[in-house]
Design goal:
This protein is α/β, with parallel strands linked by helices. 40% of the residues lie in helices and 19% in strands.
């Protein structure tokens, strides 16, 4: 069908254009790092992290962390195909799956790649939300691997905000961006379902506090 051909063509072309634009656009921004000591990763020394972030800022997170070897979980949806291609072009390893489609298979693949030496990147509130509500996958992954979960957050004064479920946002050129590395969360091995929920709530509370702190820096309680 014509629509399928157009979709396949757009998946080949658009991510290339987006990545090229991102690199030029975001190179103009100035970034201030906060608590970078919390992000203790060096796969060659056996130090890895599970980086978690809210969906609103996924594009900037992918750009900012592009030099760190990581497997990132991306939805199997058609929209997710664009994100997966962007991730590949920024040298990530996309693992396809989400809560509603192939999530368990993707989680097992993430575990294998962490054990091979990769860091991991997961959208904490998933591919479909609700926004700012942490899902349990990253807690299960931390319990299975012994790798800490590190919340990440960015904020800036001037940005583009799209009318999507997550309020996808992107900094304006020449923005001053504040980038926060949250406190690592260590999850015990072989925890039960009720304990997963307990740690999920802990992580959600920490991420929401970090979110408020980051955006309050620019005179907002949220983006």
């Amino acid at each position: 069908m014509k629509s399928d051909r157009l979709y396949r063509m757009s998946v080949r072309i658009l991510p290339t254009l987006v990545v090229a634009l991102m690199k030029v656009w975001l190179a103009t921004c100035r970034v201030t790092l906060h608590n970078v000591e919390n992000f203790d990763q060096n796969p060659e020394e056996g130090k890895k992290v599970i980086a978690v972030f809210f969906h609103y800022g996924i594009m900037y997170f992918l750009y900012f962390l592009r030099n760190i070897p990581a497997a990132v979980m991306v939805s199997r949806s058609k929209d997710g195909e664009y994100i997966a291609e962007i991730a590949r072009k920024l040298d990530y390893l996309p693992i396809r799956g989400s809560k509603n489609s192939g999530g368990m298979q993707a989680l097992k693949s993430m575990i294998r790649h962490i054990r091979k030496g990769y860091n991991a990147g997961i959208v904490a509130d998933g591919s479909q939300g609700p926004p700012l509500v942490v899902q349990a996958g990253c807690i299960a992954l931390a319990s299975k691997t012994g790798v800490p979960v590190v919340p990440l957050m960015w904020s800036c004064r001037k940005y583009i905000r799209f009318h999507s479920w997550d309020g996808t946002s992107f900094p304006y050129p020449f923005s001053r961006i504040d980038f926060y590395f949250g406190e690592p969360l260590y999850v015990p091995a072989r925890i039960k379902a009720d304990e997963i929920e307990k740690y999920r709530l802990v992580l959600e509370e920490r991420m929401k506090k970090l979110y408020t702190k980051a955006w309050s820096q620019h005179g907002r309680l949220n983006h």
